[in-house]
Amino acid sequence: MKKQIAILGSTGSIGTQALQVIEEQHELYEVYALTANNRVELLAEQARRFHPEVVVIANPAKYQQLKEALADLPIKVYAGADALCQVVEAGPIDIVLTAMVGFAGLPPTISAIRAGKAIALANKETLVVAGELINALAQEYRVPILPVDSEHSAIFQCLAGEDQNPIEKILLTASGGPFRTCTLEQLAHVTKTQALKHPNWDMGAKITIDSATLMNKGFEVIEAKWLFGVRPEQIEVVVHPQSVIHSAVQFQDGAIKAQLGVPDMRLPIQYAFSYPKRLKASFDRCDLFSIGNLTFEKPDTNRFRCLALAFESLKRGGNMSCIVNAANEIVNRAFLEDRVAFLRMAEIIEETMTKVAFIQKPTYEDYLATDAEARRVAESLI
Ligand code: NDP
Ligand code: MG
Fold it and tell me: Which ligand is nearest to the CA of 207?
């Protein structure tokens, strides 16, 4: 029996690479559902190629266009955010890959967990916003959360066979992004075009900007805390510009295990699908001789304030990381629209953290309300 996979965000960077994995491993995996937000043509093309049972377009205004594009095929077509939550519950689905961007990934992830589906988690914002709630639900419904983010996949791979051995420290590597060597004066004037040129990874626009500010690394610290049950002090960010070591774990005897490879998201995507097995794959191999040197630096939270803010939010707990995520989504979008300067992004997030009501034990409804309020506050500060 082939495993049935639903991809939330199949038209994006992770989504399209997941389809490459499924194509290469077509004897093991089959697409059950594909979803997108706006890109109807690509979604329809994917549907023709992979024959899912169902496709969903989140933006209802695009429904008619999608319906017509697939009129000759026996594929169910739905639209809207609620439909995303419903399709992931379908009986035959084994794994839901959450590859959509931002807070919007939270409701369908919760639905999928409640329906007992294994989660291959790319949408890190889900854990940033509501890690405690997601962990509680995953435990209640006995659902595994399999990391897709390359660093967390690396950590997960290092932990294989180490069930009885507690983690002393996680070494979370970071490329440092396109502005790693910029001074504060230079950072004041960097543009979105420069920010969108990531040195090692080709990703969607939002995460590429988050990588330039190091908010992405801050989010990954939070993600690591919820995935691996460590304290913030046990997570050390290590700037490693070559992006060869995808992350490492230090154990109680001082031993460090790392996972190395070329920067290619297909490997962590495939590992999340095949865990605990490894499948033969055609990905490029890592040639240590051509890499030559691996170097390491401490991150500079003076120049990259977002990393410090994410750590701060994790220490504060409650709904604070939800506030940071919402404010970040607003400033990230504003930066992409040339409405806010690079360094101003961290200032707005910090101010939003002081202006939105803190809740120590948030419910799901509190997260929704916090998200809406933090977006409103951050927008008003631009
Ligand atoms: P992209 O922007 O490339 O793709 C996002 C996908 O989600 C698209 O299919 C998009 O549809 C869809 N989408 C966007 N907004 C919504 C919405 N509101 N409702 C429903 N669907 C939506 O993003 P990435 O693939 O780069 O990133 C996806 C997630 O994976 C993010 O959380 C990111 O942090 C994480 N991640 C990504 C990595 C990467 O290498 N790209 C690495 C590690 C983590 P449409 O195309 O129609 O707009
Ligand atoms: Mg990552």
Answer: 1
- Strands of 145-147's sheet, edge to edge? 76-79, 54-57, 29-36, 3-8, 95-98, 118-121, 145-147
Q: Is the pTM of this model over 0.90?
A: yes
Q: Reply yes or no on whether the pLDDT at 194 is more than 90.
A: yes
207 CB near ligand 1 (under 6 Å): yes
Q: Determine whether the shortest distance from the Cβ of 243 to ligand 1 is under 6 A.
A: no
Q: Which ligand 1 atom is the nearest neighbour of the CA of 265?
A: 40
CA of 220 to the centre of ligand 2 (A): 7
**Confidence (pLDDT) at 304:** 98
Tell me, in angstroms, the distance from the centre of ligand 1 to residue 293's CA.
Answer: 32
Q: How far apart are CA 6 and CA 361, in angstroms?
A: 32
Give the Å distance between the CA of 153 and the centre of ligand 2: 9
DSSP single-letter state for residue 340: S
Q: Rounded to 5 degrees, what are φ and ψ at 98?
A: -90, 95
Which residue is associated with the tokens 């969607």?
204
Collapsing DSSP states into helix, strand and coil, what is residue 308? Answer: helix
* Interatomic CA distance for residues 223 and 95, integer angstroms: 20
Q: From the CA of 123, give the closest atom in ligand 1.
A: 32
How many residues are there in the chain? Answer: 382
Q: What residue's CA is closest to ligand 1, atom 26?
A: 204
Q: Given 3-state DSSP classes, what are the helix, strand and coil percentages for the chain, each rounded to the nearest 5?
A: 50, 15, 35
- CB 146, CB 109: distance < 8 Å: no
The angle subtended at Cα 36 by Cα 226 and Cα 115, nearest 5°, is: 50
Is there a contact between 180 and 186 (Cβ–Cβ < 8 Å)?
Answer: no
Cβ–Cβ < 8 Å for 90, 33: yes
Question: Do 299 and 214 touch, CB atoms closer than 8 A?
Answer: yes
pLDDT tens-digit profile of 328-378? 999 999 999 999 999 999 999 999 999 999 999 999 999 999 999 999 999
3-state SS assignment for residue 205? helix
Instruction: For ligand 1, say whether the CB of 55 is within 6 Å of any of its atoms.
Output: no
Residues with CB under 5 A from ligand 2 (ion): 149-151
